[in-house]
Request: fold
Amino acid sequence: MLTIRRWAAMTAAVVLLLLTAAPGARLAAQHDPNVLIDPTLYQALSWRAIGPNRGGRVTAVAGVRTQPNVFYMGASGGGVWKTTDDGITWKPVSDGQMSTPAIGAIDVSDSNPNIVFVGTGSEAIRSNIVLGRGVYKSTDAGKTWQFVGLKNVGQIGTVRIDPKNPDIVYVAAVGDPFGWGPDRGVYRTRDGGRTWQKVLFINNETGAVSLAINWQNPNEVIAGAWRAQRRPWTIISGGPASTGGLYKTTDGGDHWTHETAGLPTDLIGKVWVDIAQSNPRIVYAMVEAPGAEGGLYRSEDGGVTWALRSHDDALRSRPFYFDYVNVNPQNENDVWVSEVEFHKSTDGGRTWETVDTPHSDNHGIWFNPDNPQIAIECNDGGANVTQNGGKTWSSIMNQLTGEFYMVDTDKQFPYHVYGPQQDASTVVLSSLPPVSWPLDRPEQAWYEASGCESGQIRPSPDGKLVYGDCKGEFGVYSTETGQEQMYWINPQQRYGLNPKKQIYRFVRQAPIEVDPLNPHVIYHGAQYLMKTTDHGVHWEKISPDLTANEPDKQTDSGQPITRDMTGEEVYSALYSIRASREEPGVIWTGSNDGPVWVTRDGGKTWKNVTPPGPAGGRVHTIEDSPHRKGSAYVSIYRIFLDDFKPYLYLTNDYGAHWTLLTDGHNGIPADWPMHVVREDPEVEGLLYAGTWYGAFVSFDNGAHWQSLQQNLPQAAVTDIKVVDNGLVISTMGRGFWIMDDIEPLRQLALGLHHTPTTTATAAGLKAYDRSASAFLFKPASAYRMRYEPIVDQPGWPTYPPVAARIDYALNGAPSGEVILDILDGSGATVRHYSSEERARSGGGSPGLTTVLPVRMGLNRVFWNMCYPDARGGMNGPMVPPGTYTVRLEADGLTRTSTLQVRIDPRVARAGITQADLVEQARFALKVRDTLRDAEQLAASIGQAMRAASPNQARLKTSYDKLVNAPGPYTENELIAQIANIEREVTNADQKVPASAYTRYTDVARQLAAVKADVAGIL
Reply:
């Protein structure tokens, strides 16, 4: 067992080792003392997106006026995306170029469509928002992006480019959504973003959320002000009308007038404004205000005086989150208001009709000024394009922008991935294709299960039952019946109810835990820990109140205007539960208001073991160590208290003492809040972390951290699951991702501290030898599977090739040829790879290795577990299950390791045996060799015929028995007949049918006869 003291001593030794290690490692160590492992040593590891390709929340859209099929969208947690085909396909264009994935506003220059400005940080400040970090600019239509300032202005509601001069840009900054400060207001640049001026500052609490520019006179700008803040227990939206409301400038922002005539005089909340460009004297504003004062206002004098046009409640749902108005640029009376539903008025706001969109919870629309029938609208399900004024829309089933709160997996093969998608449903996906044939549509790859958009979801180990929560309403979904049974702890209706009146306080992300040592025991968390042993039919309270339960935090949410009680603001409730994998009866809990508790006797007694440090944070995740009893990691999230530091604590004595593993200087930046950490179940002290802005790995139990981002787009990593030989993550804005075969990380960690655990030893893992010029990693077991891979197809999940992954590291450029051979149990070569010759692929799966890579650092080979085909290509019969030897030759060294090729467990359950597959491979090779002989014979006969042999007629007769005649639907001759046998016996894992043996005997006899006919000639 490793203690923190031992880890510190080992870390010091590691630094000394690095100073004498390979050049790449020395360079990494000198560059960053937190980089203990040269990242090139795991450079071949990558993430793959598995979906679901169903859109998530989008609050920013814009189109290109002169290119009516081109649009941009900004996902609230998934970056900037672009379509050039009216929304049929979308492509992310900001990945790796912005410091935050949260997009708040987009505008495209009318005078130069290559210029695009993006403001980060969505202004719809629900509880899962990610902080904005300034403004970005593209001068090449979204290909590349440059940061142009305003990093600290928080959430940006609107960006507006002067329609005549793209160097003049205005930004409406809501501000820090979690605290007051001086950076909110309206900003202007006159030099394309090189410098900025704050041209409208109201006060430290009131920022700007919306902007409208008069296209005919761009010096005329109207801003909507907003006092807004998100707290853990409430949402603040609104303040005194003396400071909120509408502001106007007529000189490009140098001077502003607070326009109040006709507007509410007491309280004003969120305000969204738009100018009718066909008649700029007409201006509309959606105004949050108490009672009948709130609603749609209209001005007929350019925004100086106002009159309430409609206070219809249907237009005003959750104004802090919606409250948008947009005007058709060619019709001053064609007005659109976005809230849960999407509303349209053709008489200037007097009467309304509802327009259907692909998803509810709407956040605004952009109209093409030259043809307003063409538009793009956004909502909590993505972005959708219309070409007919909203009658029909493009799909949202082509956007990988789903926001997920957590992830879990089961123990099926292949394992399934589970999680709740914000504003959609819970989702279950297979980690690999569920069928062997190609999918018709991406939606076939997933299905819905119990629970809803925000609640946790946990499967039984076999995946037959799925436990889900929807705001405290527990459900059990059966994959066999297709039904979800409801077994609530208490059927009190809590929606809209003050938390102090709730019998059981459930947060929207109410935790569920399946006991890892007894899957019949399920835990569920309110302010108490609840337990069931009969799938929820009966519940037992096994704890006292495990929260801080401060009375002043149990209040109505929504101040000072609009009450908003959806469960997000239930502050004193459990947020995380973790039952020990090492000790029965040990259970850890954490609440969203700070306390951490532990029981060691199944709930009979409890101890408050809250880590030291700032109070009140959300205990986002608790991870029990799979190696050390009494050891746990706790991730605490304090953004709602305006604290963006990462807090990760470790205890090795059941919470008696804690160590902070994230001090802001040891690899994870000081302003990257922490969501989750998981410890590798095979290698002690190998940690994987998810933060607000990406993924990290620690090879020394959290003393140092380094990036594990690889190809992962920047997104909040909300949860991590270590399963089989891979990592599964959920993101708040880019769906689920998987990193397959992390064995190199494990062996690198073993090479660092030389303390292999029992599990690592049992798995046959080898410690990485940093002194060797070439190192062959122990490959993970590979399963024979049959499915169609999907790689680089927009809108589809990514499925890797059916292959064994073989990893090796080179510490420098090899002096000569590098060779990798795969040998069977008899020592015969099954596959040969070389760095100097490209193998014939013979078609087949994308992503397979054809030439051996020789990059310095980690290289990965994908072997498809097949023998060569009849022509020497890659896709012959599949090898049978068994033990194979991998042999690497580089720089005069030879390294070997064993590779287990295993039967697909589903095939085994269906009754196919190892012996069946050995016989299938034997027979398939026999057919393959016969096919090769027939093709070679045909080639020899053809060569003789072209050489004008005197036996042309005889040769022609023999040739025609082998090769099909040209033309449609000609009779299949001998080569085609042999290939047909191969097709029958190689498309699935199966017994060889009797008919194949019989037919093979026939064709083999026919081939022998042809050989005999031409023997004397050839």
